[in-house]
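Hey everyone, long-time lurker, first post.

I ran two proteins through the pipeline my lab uses and got sequence/structure pairs for each. Pasting them in order. The first:
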Amino acid sequence: MDREAAMRAHDEAWHRGFADPDLEDEDPPARGRTPDLNPPNGARDGAPAPGPGAFSGVDDSGVVTVTVDRASLVTDVAVVQHWRDFIAPGELGHALLTAANAAIHELVADQLAHLDLDSIVPKAPAVPTVTPARDDSMLTEMLDLMSRFDRDIETYRGQLESMVRATATAAGPNGRVRVSLGGGRVVEVTADPRWAARARHTEIRFEALGAFRAATRQLGNIDITTVQKPASLMRLQELVEHLAHSTRD
């Protein structure tokens, strides 16, 4: 057999390994919990840390790590090789769910830490002791915009809520893992316990990542940053900034 044929045969065998849930060559049969073993420090032990713009979460047992990007899309799933030494196969779905929502929590915490409130809610400007006549029209426009502010914010909030309330459920390539998304979080993850009792950790990664991606595609665009802010709010911000500069000059 020449080198090219040998490489092709190796690749085909590797792909068949993912497709065959009963093939077992890395993990021992399910043994449930082993209390006297030290739990792992996360599925990424020995793996590169997430890069900039990536956020990882780990389940309570430390055997599953899920990574999301800034759009809350799952970009990676990692499972320690001997995960069945720490959790039972029937707990795999819950471990995936916990790790995924922990990653989303890290993302939200980062967004809140860098949130610029001044760009969202305009501060009421200090009223100058002497208001030039040329500012009368500006102040009139500001009062008109502020009278519409509550109504426009309610409309904006409704658009955001309708987006985050969307739900979707999808399965991995072999139908062994199912993921439900909604409300800006992972609602449910289930895994076939009979399959999980024998599946390799690499196969679990392949199946779970496929399920997360399929559910995301079904859900469509849920990036709330694409929702346009109310025009009245944008204009009010401009006027506030202009008036603040005028009172300082």
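...and the second, right after it:
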Amino acid sequence: MQKIILVLLCLCLGCASAKTKEPPPQAPLTSFKILNEASLQKGGKLLIAPFRAGVNVEANEELNKIALMVVKGITEAIKEQGENNFEILSYAQAQEADLMIEGHITKLTKPSRMNRMGLGDQKISLGLEGNMVNLETGEKALIFSDLDERGQKGNTHQDLAYAMGRAIGQAIAAGINKTE
């Protein structure tokens, strides 16, 4: 009986001490270019649309989750900057938007079954591209793209999407601060 209690206690303590998973470190974006500083500086009500499947990327439930993680990363990074010129809107408020971030997932790869068995490259990759559009004028305020490839161990596409979204949000915030 004491052995069972000891085993249960060890299991409970082991589970309680498990660390929460942190997202992979953020790398700088592959490409980020401000096209219209005035729109970015003015700010306004911002809608961040979930990224859609690009060419040669299958639209499915996994892609939807990945797309939402990009949105979450962008949203959190912009909100963390404190005072900025953007009010981030929910989809229910979409009609009020002045600006919109939209994009596509351009690459989504994972190792083949043979590679997952240890017989080859075990990397996953995620690529995205997008822009921020001034909805009043139709002009693009900025464009960006990114491609990240990492070892599969400890990383998921959702982790990469979140980190990439944060990098996009931080680049937008840095662009605002740079133009002030």
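Reply from user beta_strand_b:
Welcome! Quick read of the second one: The chain is about 40% helix and 30% strand. The chain has a mean pLDDT of 81.
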